[in-house]
Design a protein that fits this description.
- By secondary structure, the protein is of the alpha/beta class.
- 37% of the residues lie in helices and 15% in strands.
- It has five helices and five strands.
- It has a five-stranded mixed β-sheet, covered by helices on one side.
- A hairpin with a 5-residue loop joins strand 2 and strand 3.
- The N and C termini lie far apart (42 Å).
Length: 150
């Protein structure tokens, strides 16, 4: 090969190496998660029902079962809340705000701890931040984890 071809090839490889993190890496990109579940899918397929037999939402349960601090992980556009059994459950934004509002808070007054995966979408973070402001939740009551988690 001529010297010029090697330079062009090297420049293309360097450009690809710089853009690869922004493109999501190699692969088909059709994965559904990190693979840590047990495969039963019980959290997603069974609805909680009240004494009257009607479905009870997460927000309704939060009124009775407030926690000290709500642990949230933003993954792409999903808000994953840590449950008592150690699993994470996807919760809609409006229900998440109710959970955080009802949280008792820890000794430092924090009601929520919010982290994000590298795959989180900025719009999901800003939507949550706006919803918390609209719900009059003090910024000091929320701990935002700056570094993305894996």
């Amino acid at each position: 090969m001529k010297k010029r071809n090697w330079v062009v090839l090297g420049a293309a490889a360097a450009l690809l190496a710089m853009l690869l993190p922004f493109l999501g890496g190699f692969g088909t990109g059709d994965g559904t998660g990190d693979g840590t579940g047990d495969g039963t899918g019980s959290d997603q397929t069974q609805a909680t029902v009240g004494a009257d037999g009607k479905p009870v939402s997460t927000a309704d349960r939060a009124r009775d079962e407030s926690v000290e601090v709500v642990d949230v992980l933003i993954d792409e556009t999903s808000y994953l809340v840590l449950q008592a059994d150690g699993r994470r459950k996807s919760v809609p934004l409006d229900e998440l705000v109710v959970l955080i509002t009802k949280a008792r808070g820890n000794a430092d007054g924090k009601k929520a701890r919010i982290a994000r995966k590298e795959s989180s979408v900025l719009n999901a973070e800003t939507s949550l931040e706006k919803a918390l402001v609209d719900a009059k939740i003090e910024p000091s009551a929320v701990r935002w984890i700056i570094e993305p988690v894996k």
